[in-house]
Amino acid sequence: MLFSHILNSKKIRLSAIPALFLTFFIFRAFASGESNASDAFAKVRHNTSDTTFENNFETGAAVNEHADGQGEEKFDPTTAIMEHIADSHDWHLWGHTSIHLPVILFTDKGAEFFSSGKFEHGEKTYQGKYYTYGLLEDKIYAVDSAGAIDKEASAHVYDFSVTKNIAAIWVSVILLLIIFRSVASAYAKREGKAPKGLQSFIEPIIVFVRDDIARPNIGYKYAKFMPLLLTVFFFIWINNLLGLLPIFPGGANVTGNIFMTFVLAFIVLLAVNLNGNKYYWKHILMPDVPWWLYPIMIPVEIIGVISKPFALMIRLYANISAGHIIVLSLIALIFIFKSLAIAPVSVAFVLFMDVLELLVAFLQAFIFTMLTALFIGTAVDEHAH
User: Fold this and answer.
1) How far does the chain reach from its first CA to its final CA, in angstroms?
2) Is the peptide bond before 195 cis (omega within 30 degrees of 0)?
3) Residues 6 or more apart from 234 whose CB is under 8 A from it?
4) With CB atoms 3.0 to 4.6 Å apart as the test, which of 116, 152, 196, 376 could cross-link to 89 if both were Cys?
5) Is the dihedral of CA 80, 252, 161, 29 positive or negative?
6) What gap in Å lies between CA 351 and CA 296, rounded to an integer?
């Protein structure tokens, strides 16, 4: 089947724009979330007189020395799991080797740019141009000369750093551009011929999205929304797959991050409501019920407009995060029981869960795209209900 008219169209060439637009908003969402979390945590830490980065490390060293004297330090599976699924200012490769990512801070005195390697994995503070900064629990704070968190200064520090999840988004966008540019180029060179190589793998997926997702749910106007649906489907799918890889360029929990799924859901919200016709808005603002029920029905309909993308956000976030947590929990059993006897059972279940997550990776991309098409279909339907 010939797809050159689709893949060579300007719409598909510009399909990377929603992904880049998505990256920008993820960038802003992460910065906002981290800034608020920093302020809340600083309030708690500032109330303790001996809260300094130096004291924190000294306490940790004392605990380790005590553990060496009394026995091996107890393994905390919750902390280990949360560290693996959380975002980070470094992209871990192996052992003590990591890719140090750029730190971009905007303060009331000016902008700061430096590498996250300056923190030495949170063990050191860094003297910037305007403030001294410390990394605690992968969040950046302004600290005073004694090493204590400076609550007032931290309130004016806004973190726009390139974190692991943001870098992973860039990697996935680059992969998508490489894949689809090569396929589009192949269609241009082999016009009218049977697909070959990567074409033969991508074409059935495009047919699947078009014939089983777009057409049944949107109708004859489906072609207008194909670039969006294809971008959403492949973006989620490729990030789900990369999240299953334990090493670079995988290892980032992109689609299992609530800020990420929020931006995806927000894009769906815009796509649905900006394309809604008069029948769609009439059903929301002037439903076919007695006028005295309007005070009840209109708020219910407006809540429905918001709850649909909200359900998309929670579903993708919860399913992907749950899969990672289960796999990490099964691996943690080896360290909890401190026995190699449990290793074969743990590894067997991990392999089973990894195979299952391959299915979930595709399934979640399909469900998100299908529901997006369904919501768009209800907005562009020309029949009054």
Assistant:
1) 37
2) no
3) 176, 179, 365
4) 116
5) negative
6) 51
Handedness of CA 336, 341, 345, 346 (dihedral sign): positive
Tokens representing 263 are 């931006």
CA gap 47, 59 in Å, rounded? 18
Structure tokens at 161: 């750093």
- Tens digits of residue pLDDT in 158-176: 888 888 889 999 999 999 9
Q: Which DSSP helix (H) or strand (E) runs through 78?
A: helix 77-85
* Residue pLDDT, tens place only, 65-88: 444 445 556 777 787 788 778 888
Give the model confidence (pLDDT) of 335-382 as tens digits.
Answer: 888 878 888 888 898 899 888 999 999 999 999 999 999 999 999 987
**Extents of the domains making up the chain:** 4-21+166-380, 28-163
Residue 331 DSSP SS3:
helix
Return the structure tokens found at 226.
């194909």
Which pTM value belongs to this model?
0.79
